[in-house]
Amino acid sequence: MNEDIKEVLYSKEDISRISHKIGLQLTADYKDKNPLVICVLKGAFLFMADIVREIQTYVEIDFMDVSSYGDETVSSGEVKIIKDLDVPAEGRDIIIIEDIIDTGKTLQCLVELFKHRKANSVKICTLLTKPERRVAGIEPDYVGFEVPNEFVVGYGLDYKGRYRNLPYVGILKPEIYENN
Ligand code: XMP
Ligand code: MG
Question: Which residue, among 6, 165, 166, 35, has the nearest Cα to 97 in the 3D structure?
Answer without folding.
Answer: 35
